[in-house]
Amino acid sequence: MTTAVCPFDPYAPETVEEPFAFYAWLRREAPIHHLPRAGYHVVSSYELVRDAALRVDDLSSKIVAVLTARADETPEILDLSAMNPIVDVLATVDPPRHAAQRRLTNQAVTVDRVSALEDELRRRAAALVDAAVAAGTTDWMTAFAVALPMGTITRLLGLPDADIEQLRIWSDSTVATVNGLLDANGFADAARSAMELAAYLREHLAAARAANRDDLVGELLRNVGPGDDGLTEEEVLSIVFQLFVAGNDSTASLIGSALRMLVQDAALTAELRARPERVPAFVEEVLRLHSPFQGHFRVALRDLELGGTKIAEGSRLMLLWAAANRDERVFPEPDAVKLDRANGKNHLAFGVGIHHCIGATLARRQAAIAIETALARADLAPGWSSAPVHIPSLFVRRLTRLDLTARGR
User: Fold this and answer.
1) How far apart are CA 132 and CA 135, in angstroms?
2) How far apart are CA 171 and CA 186, in angstroms?
3) Which of 119, 190, 306, 372 has minimal Cβ neighbours within 10 Å of its Cβ?
4) Contact indicator for 108, 216 with CB cutoff of 8 Å
5) Can you give 316-342 as a three-state secondary structure string?
6) Do residues 67 and 40 make contact, with C-beta atoms less than 8 angstroms apart?
7) What is the pLDDT of residues 158-204, one digit of tens each?
């Protein structure tokens, strides 16, 4: 860990909006850096982020606390133990419990179950694009990037379409609990929304159990049972909660970033129209350049060493996927879109190891369909009067809105 003085204020609005110069400084000068005025380290080089993510016996994935920090305030760590409406599962649980949860969730989120959504997904994508085109200039984040994955995850979980708007509000508030920039009051408000979402999903699970539904939720509920080979009721609730929130937010971020990149690069747009088989490679570059989750948190379970730096038991770390994904030692010309990268899928946007995102395949497929549909059915151009900005967050990277002017093709 270096003692170099960081020339960036990590909490300043301009750094939060465009953190990549800060990330480059971290990789070059301080790949393990104690965040000033805060209680945790950030890990930024590809090698060290990957190493840390794979050390599941040394570093816990459980979210025991979150940072709250603003440019003009002293950061503090908020203990989540009294506020968390769900138990740790999947991305936020450690071995050995993780193995059973992952196995049983994989059995529910089957390839066939996801593939069955594709025709409907294409129909909805076309309808959403056509509606946005008819509107002329509109916010494509709301009208398309958010609407498409929200419709997919609600359908996958059997949630009613009539509740989508309320579900979106709850989802956004839940994500805000870990953005690192809320004050204590803002965090409390967001946490209340997360609890309301958990209560809603609990009622949904009770109805699904009574109906003995033959869908993803029904499959998870049938795995409730005693012993290490079964799930608890609270684990099922938490798995559905995590699938819903992470599933729709990350994909909305991915689609929004892709659309912005396309309208700002006519040559790239023309290439993908001429060679639509290259869209999946473009999706990987969007994931690498604008990782929907900037990083994930870890807690040291014991004294350890990482990259020659001593980390004390109980220390908190943030593994910066977004910084690692622009590491020039792994990805030459890291800030450029290169559709022919030999290692294009080696980015860490979905994590690595046992906690690799369980919805990665679905996210990639939705994004590819969204891009293919938009390119085929619309000519898009920037419709904003000022540059689009992202939700203020140290954790997620998602545009607040994306005003585009569209004409049908």
Assistant:
1) 5
2) 15
3) 119
4) yes
5) EEEECHHHHCCCCCCCCCCCCCCCCCC
6) yes
7) 999 999 999 999 998 888 877 777 776 777 788 888 889 999 999 99
Those residues whose C-beta lies under 8 Å from the C-beta of residue 206, and which sit 6 or more positions away, are: none
Instruction: Tell me the DSSP string of 60-111.
Output: E----EEEE--TTS--EEEE-TTT-SS---GGG--TTHHHHHHHHHHHHS-H
The residue written with tokens 């760590």 in the block is 77
43-84 residue pLDDT tens? 999 999 999 999 999 999 987 555 555 545 555 555 554 445
256 in Cβ contact with 402 (< 8 Å): yes
Question: For the segment 343-395, what is each residue's pLDDT rounded down to a tens digit?
Answer: 999 999 999 999 999 989 999 999 999 999 999 999 999 999 999 999 998 88
Length of the chain as a residue count: 409
Straight-line distance from the first to the last Cα atom of the chain, in angstroms, rounded to the nearest whole number: 54
Alpha-carbon distance of 49 to 51, in angstroms, equals 5
- Among residues 51, 2, 60, 71, which one has the least CA distance to residue 30? 2
**CA 374 – CA 83 distance, rounded (Å):** 41
Decide: 83 and 191 in contact? Cβ < 8 Å.
yes
Tokens of residue 138, six digits: 């509109």
Q: By CB neighbour count within 10 A (0-12 exposed, 13-18 middle, 19+ buried), where does 150 fall?
A: buried
Q: Cβ contacts of residue 93 below 8 Å, gap of 6+?
A: 61, 62, 101
Tokens of 126: 């076309």
Nearest to 357 by CA among 283, 276, 296, 268: 296
The tokens for 202 are 């609990």
Helix (H) or strand (E) holding 366: helix 360-377
Can you tell me whether residue 266 is helix, strand or coil? helix
**Whether the Cβ atoms of residue 338 and residue 62 lie closer than 8 Å to each other:** no
Architecture of domain 13-408: Orthogonal Bundle (1.10)
For 231, phi and psi rounded to 5 degrees? -105, 155
d(CA 207, CA 101): 22
What is the C-alpha separation between 401 and 316, in angstroms, rounded?
32
- Residue 5 gets which letter from DSSP? P
